[in-house]
Amino acid sequence: MNAWLGKVAVVTGASGGIGLAISKALASYGIRVIGLARRMEKLTEASAMIGQYLFHPIECDIKVEDEILNTFKYIEEHFGGVDILVNNAGIFNRSYIIDSDTTEFQDVINTNLMAPAILAREAMNSIKKRNARGHIINISGTPGLYLQAVTVPIGMYGPSKYGLKALGIELRHEIALAELNIKLTTISPGFVQSDMLKDLYEFLNLSEDGFLKDTDIADTVIYVLGTPESVEIAEITVLVQGKGSNAIVG
Description:
Layout: E1 8-12, H1 17-28, E2 32-37, H2 40-50, E3 55-59, H3 65-79, E4 84-87, H4 102-129, E5 134-139, H5 157-178, E6 182-189, H6 198-203, H7 214-225, E7 235-238
Parallel strand pairs: 1-2, 1-4, 2-3, 4-5, 5-6, 6-7
């Protein structure tokens, strides 16, 4: 992890849960974290907790492309550019597809898939411009791998997570073609104790007892970042030990 000391990471959904845990873990290794979320008061609390030098809060609605572009412009002007991107933010909509308005489709797809694509594009161009080393990490979920194992419909959430997996594959092809020094990892956790996923768990009538912790996902992020320069972990699935197939539908 010494190679990342003093580098800049963007973490979406950084105001709580998995995003906050990832931000804390990155900062503990001397990485300067740009935390993005819509709740500025929560981001400010995170900055006070982690330290203003290591955590810089920016209010950003990632569903709005202009807000993403303005954020990257600000980062370039004040921090020089982005070295690490963690696409963590995501939403779950309780509605089945058959009962949903198109705007509900768009909210899920724009947050869970379109925004990560835009953020990855901007991060890759920032890294390319500086001929730097970088790493993009997409936090997906096991519905993006094993949607058949989810025994009830979950609307557009599953398709959006499948799309995030495919996005990672496409970006890796483009990175190789352009000969960029960028790694790309898709992390697919099972059930995680998370405020964001409470609606999903209520929808599935599940208890969070025995689920993964947000720090487990943060530790996984550190693990993939800490691999030797010649090693790239393309995909990694994180499950609760000993829970078997019951853990793959988170």
